[in-house]
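anyone seen this seq b4? input:
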Amino acid sequence: MLNSMFDDDDDDNIGDITPVNDIGARMDSVASPGETKLAADNAMPSGVKDPPVQGKGEESQQKHSWSTIQDRLRTSVVSIMINRPTAFEESCATFSYATGFVVDSEQGLIMSNRHVMGTGPSFHKAVFFGNQEVFLQPTYYDPVHDFAFFRYNPSELQDVEPKAIRLAPEKARSGLEFRIVGNTSNEKMSVHQGELSQLDRNPPVYDGSYSDFNTFYFQASSNSKGGSSGSPVVDIEGDAVAINCGAKHISSNVYLLPLERAAYALGYVKRGLVPPRGTLQTVFKHVNHTEIGRLGLSPDMACSEGVNIKETTGMLKIEKILPDGPASNVLSVGDILISVNSKPVPGFLELSETIDASVDKELGMRVFRKGQFYNHRVSVGNIYDITPSKLVRIGGTHLCNISYQQAVKWSAPIYGVTITHDSNGFIPHSSYGRCGIIYAANGKPTPNVDALMDILRDAGQDKPVVFKTKNHRDLRDEAVFVARHPPVAEPNIVYTRSPATGIWSIEPYSGMSATAGAGAGAGASGPRSFSPELEPEQPHGEMVAAVPKRADTFVSRRGSQMFVQAVSNSAVSIVACPITPADGQYSRISNGTGVIVDRRQGIVLCSTDVVKNPTCNVWITFAGLVCIEAKLAYTHPLYPISFLKYKPEQLFSNCGVDIGSYAVIDEIGIGSQTCQDGTSDTPLSVGTSVTVVLGAAGENIEIISSTVDGRRILSTKTCGACVNPRYFNTNVFFVSPEPSPASSKLGIVYSCDGSLCGIWVRLPHCIHSKNHPPFVGLDVSLVRSALAALQLDRSDVGSAHILDAEFAPVTLDTAHVFGAGNAHIKEVLRTTSAHERQMFKVDKTLHKREQTGSDSLEVGDVVLTIDGQLATRIGELACIYGRSSVALTVVRDMKEIPLAIETVPLSGISTRRVVCWAGMVMQEPHEAALEKANRVPSKVFMFRAVGGSPVYSKGHEWNVFITEIDDQPIKTLDDMVEVARRLKSSDAETFNTRVASNEAFSSGKMPGCDAKIHSVTLAGEDNVYSIRTNDHYFPAWQIRRGPLADDDWLWEAL
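predicted toks r here
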């Protein structure tokens, strides 16, 4: 397929198109076994006329020369830049290059491939000779065959007078010398030579989403590469005899489409009409006469039916019939086609001509089957009725009707709605992901996307929907799941293709809309109690819904069963669906488990890995019975833990069943005000016996009896192998029990006396990083300060400070070598236990901060004391609360020196605003970006380019700082928003209205403007380039969230 921004494959992608990143997205084909060969070198399939006589060929050779082919065609062959703003069918949002050629210079018609134009929303530009660019309309693409026609406005060209290339399908013959004139690897006017060999080849089967069928292809040897799709295959007179479509990846074979049906369609397009196209929803294959004989139809029997064996190379056999199609109960796979309407049909051309002339009529078909001849009447359908022309985006998920191409590939009926792309989790539980087939919703069938839209509209806002889906890879594999619309998501819209221009209009869709600024618990119907063990509580003087009584303290519990009950009553399941990528994290759904740590205020503790993207829509499931919305309240800047908040009253009002006393929802008491009730402040030490309980309510509970076998420090902040800078925890001691739990669920660690002493968490690690294990144990004391601030609704809950350095433990002997005095070492020995007899040296420092003080740490410094206290615990250096500066004593260059060090504040949720303009997704630089940057020239960090967007097409790397737009300085996101509003096109709404009304107009130019961008990479390199914005497909927007833990994300169009 075409490469999107997430594609990593280097080969076997469909589309003979060179993407901007030069990843080989060629329409590479794989030869089918037992392919047909020509009966004789000069034998031609039916539908191709005799070659010109030799005398005429010699005269043409004298008049024309291959040496002048480039001069004659340089104004006729164009480079096409393709932007696909959204996924459609199986194609991703992307940008690429290809080729086209002028076939009517007066009307401004350019021919190229179907897979170049694409079948979904797209916009294109043609680059003519002299680098003159014009905008294109995607006027027409064939529903099956690999050709399409663009339209441009000839008046937009200056000093270029392109000459139309004539389509001459009748000139194709075996042995014909040709030239492919295109833009191989985006190198303009590349010319490749070859000779036509096979003329009756079945269509190649490509690895990607698109493959042609029911037509012959030509095969030849040539060296055309990616970017030459859509190139004309011309003879020595400059006439096009075929169009270049694809190539075999491991050889020099190219596959060329004959032009008979393209010439037929062009005649209609020139008159402003849509060419009639019929379908039997049946795939035919050309089989040579020898194979036909093996299938039971002898030459004598064929001749008796009027088949001319001597002048044809084979016959058509039915390869596939789509279920529930016009021919599904009439014809059979393996039938050999004899005639249609009493006329012999030896090839694809005659069959296509007959079917296209019989739309909404019946055909009389005579076939050979199992030794007998049969006559059948088959209805011809309109192929445009099964060609998707509508795309719906709901909650970030893109949905459209199953297409003819998909149905053929999957052997599926043309029934249902396909999931083209799921970016932020409207359908989070689909095991099939993209291209799963939805065939029912809320118990009602969904034959098409209109039916699904009606069901979702009737379902109402904020209501879960039950979907039934099938796996497109195996239609017997079905799934039923519940999907919930994200509380905050990009607007729900409907794309509709205009037949007049091929441009897609964009209209709002009101069904299942997210409430503006909706947060946890939107749409509540009021509290409802369901347990007899309830008591009203009034935290902070306000009445809230009844919550379960707290169970006995953990001190009184003994044995594994008590541990299981405690964890089971407080455990929850979590699903997090990001609104947009942020902080180096993609828009991928994540899930995990957590535990309730404050039931009255609705606070849940979980691993940061579950909600590592700060722009998350979050759902929490309690006791396997109630699912409600929550929000990310706090992510610890150092430790791999996060806190979620939900509204306790929603826990009861959202319960759809009366569960009586069968469910008890409790909390794990780890707050500072309850530490005396069963929790321990003592760090887990090596050799301590512990019990680790992992799981969630409604799931299996795992109990592991272990012994702490080590305490180690996390040593890596960022993963250098990641393209996007991502922050990883550092300066944290973790414990590793042996045996280690195999589960990835959050767990609670109990000591042998029943005290809660630790938590088992999953690290937000990267698959490229091998520096630390994915699961670790943490001392419970590490979470108390943040939890206490949340419980008191403090606005400074995220105001943890750090020393902006990465520390590594050193032995006392090493510290002595560095210069630590004997008196200090003796004091450490006297006041600390054996496992704390260590010091810490600075392993890494950051130099991007603006320090007002004169003192700073240096690599190699050994820290002796902090604020007069021995620095033997990493927690004392790693996370500092409530102090803007600290007094350190360090050893540097064999000397003890005092330092006054300013601490650096870190927010618990560093990103609270994301802005998108022209496909540039920007935020304030997060911690990992600051660490990697050589310099920070602005507070606008572009961390992603949306696939198919104007900035994506430039090919410049993202993860850059934006410093100027049109020479205007950009320092903050406010500056970026002001630019987006100032440069917004005033005619965007008018343009969309014209498209929606199916108005015909000559130009493909879309609302937008030219803009100059100045960016700076993380390495400090400057880049200046220009883009053309597109306000139709890429309107500017922002999402933002207030500073408080209870603030919601808000989506705003700019």
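The two ends are 33 Å apart (CA to CA). The longest helix spans residues 260-270. kinda curious what u guys think
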